[in-house]
Amino acid sequence: MNASPAPPARNRRPVLLLFVLFAAPLAGAFWLYYGSSWRPALRTNHGELITPVTLPELALPLAVGAAGAPGKPAAAPAKLLRGKWSLLVIGHGEAGCDATCRNALVYARQTWLSLAQLAPRAQRVLLAGAGCCDLEYLRREHPGLIALDASGSTAEALMRLFPAAREGAIFIVDPLGNLMMRYDVRQDPKGLREDLKKLLELSHIG
């Protein structure tokens, strides 16, 4: 019995073309991963991760002008940074919260508002510098903001735990008091909202 004749070469071309189309991307991926220094980004967060550090419990005074004992500002609870997710801004400048600080406060406020039904699980905190603040501005533009006077010696231990790059930054503190992420407000603010919403949806604390 005679063997079947080999198929014409032109009939093999579609098969070879399909092989190249499917094999080329796979070969390219192998070369990129094993044959070059390029690596895919593994993170999905938009902010800068900070090695978690637990912030101390300190009863810092509220910004001057808050209701308290005569001649003495009221103090915030020592556990203020516990129990909720905190969007925290650190004040700068001679007035305790300059234009860059105010810009960060606006981003924090808009992010908090965008959380909708998740908003009660988060709070906004300002660690103000000496001379803070324009309280009328804070009351008018940032209702609900907790402004603390962090200019005294009591706050020194707390302030040392924050990265040096504080200007124009919003920090996230988890409900256990752990400082964990930093955001530069000069970048796309959508990333802050996306990350915070994801944390709130996945977390069972706070």
Tally of individual helices: 5
Low-pLDDT residue intervals, each spanning 5 or more residues: 36-43, 65-71
**Structural class designation:** alpha/beta
Radius of gyration: 27 Å
| Proportion of residues in extended strands | 15-25%
Mean pLDDT: 79
Topology, number of strands: 6
Q: Into which percent range does the helicity of residues fall?
A: 25-40%
Number of domains: 1
Distance N to C terminus: 81 Å
Strand order of the largest sheet: 1-6-5-2-3-4
The ordered string of helix (H) and strand (E) elements is: HEEHEHEHEEH
Overall geometry: elongated
CATH superfamily, by name, is Glutaredoxin
Report the biggest beta sheet as strand number plus sense, adding barrel if it closes: 6 strands, mixed
Looking at the overall shape, the CATH architecture is 3-Layer(aba) Sandwich
Which CATH first-tier class would you pick?
Alpha Beta
- The CATH topology turns out to be Glutaredoxin
What does this structure look like?
The termini are far apart. The model is unreliable at 36-43 and 65-71 (pLDDT under 50). The protein is 32% helix and 17% strand. The protein has a single domain, classed as 3-Layer(aba) Sandwich (Glutaredoxin), CATH 3.40.30. The chain is of the alpha/beta class and 206 residues long. The protein has five helices and six strands, in the order H-E-E-H-E-H-E-H-E-E-H.
Give keywords:
206 residues; alpha/beta; Glutaredoxin; six-stranded mixed beta sheet; 6 strands; elongated
Give a short overview.
The protein has five helices and six strands, in the order αββαβαβαββα. It is α/β, with parallel strands linked by helices and 206 residues long.
